[in-house]
Amino acid sequence: MSHAAKQSAPPEQPAVDPTYSLWQITAYALRLGTLGFGGPVALVGYMHRDLVEQRKWISDADYKEGLTLAQLMPGPLAAQLAIYLGYVHYGVLGATLVGVGFVLPSFVMVVALGWAYVEYEGLSWMQSVFYGVGASVIAIILVSAYKLTQKTIGKDKLLWGIYLVSGLVTVVTESEWIGMFLAAGALTWFLRTPRTPRHEKTVEVTESGSPGSTTARILVSPLAVVAVVTNETLLKIALFFTKAGAFVFGSGLAIVPFLYSGVVKEYEWLTEQQFLDAVAVAMITPGPVVITVGFIGYIVGAKEGGTVGGFEAATVAALATFLPCYLLTIIPAPYFKKHGKRPGIVAFVDGVTAAAVGAIAGAVLVLGRRTIFGDGWSPEIPKVVILIVTLGLLLKFKKLPEPVIILGAAIVGLCLFPLVHH
Predict the structure, then answer these.
(1) Residue 315 included in any domain
(2) Residue 51 domain-assigned?
(3) CB-based burial of residue 12 (10 Å sphere; 0-12 exposed, 13-18 middle, 19+ buried)?
(4) Which domain range does residue 222 map to?
(5) Within a domain: residue 381?
(6) pTM over 0.85
(7) Has residue 312 been placed in a domain?
(8) Number of domains in the chain
(9) Using 50, 70 and 90 to split pLDDT, how confident is the model at 7?
(10) Closest CA to 39 of 69, 9, 78, 67
């Protein structure tokens, strides 16, 4: 490889030494995956609060780049952001360890719940728990979205305009549109980038290919082997969940309609009630909402071949879902790191970030309406009370751990639900 080619290759790590160790950020990912309730909106807020504001391990610019990349690429938002933040100072190894640490705890939990679900024929207590937890989670993600808005939008009028339009579109359509993020970035770039004469510049391409290519081959191989050498059901699971991870944009909640059409309608692996239970499990367990694929995989596998088949199917479903988002984060990451500080890129990132945070805020309203109002037009008063009490606790006691609030809400739900729905 020529000297010029080496110089043009995008570096995996920045020149600035990190103020934390690889073990520290991996341990943080494990903790967040174990205790991080509230879904994607809350999780991205926790990462900003913990890693940018409090510990100052990650710069605000790096966080914005990660959030932009996570929004532009298909797959679960929070998992992709975590993977990117692991990449910032420790490259592919950091991205891998942080990604595994973030996903593994919730995977273990949903597999355990899947075993209990199959053994005891359903989770009759799930509705009671979710009755209290759902309203409490809305309050948690509302506070997270508010703090994220304050930090990323500030008093910038252009970004506020993008934020409000994005939020409104999300509320009206109840979906996130990648075209809106790209348009927001392009608009900000056009309005804020100085117009200078263009100079031709030759850039040599390295012979080694993209930095993620070797990792891609290493990680795809085990999944391919598992899918090919086992039974037909596991092969179908691998193919379906790979498609789900590779082609569904938006937050973790965006994958739910896609999963429903496949596992309930197309393959008829689950009944309507089993699918709703799977979504409920994802909402009351910490970590990424997309981890519901592990629960779904377990049930499908258990139907086919007992508990061993259940674990195998859950593992294949989780690997197939998260592998695409992992690769679609680490492969473009070095180019974000190399070019992300240029004025045009900074303006583009600011615009996409404003649209992304607006979509997150809109998603809070959508989820809040569904949780508090259900399918009707009248709010459920007990849920409103739980939401208000949770907001009061969060605002008054700044350091009150979210898991404590979730546990209290679950107990309240167990007590209230039989009385409200007797």
Answers:
(1) yes
(2) no
(3) buried
(4) 214-326
(5) no
(6) no
(7) yes
(8) 1
(9) very low
(10) 78
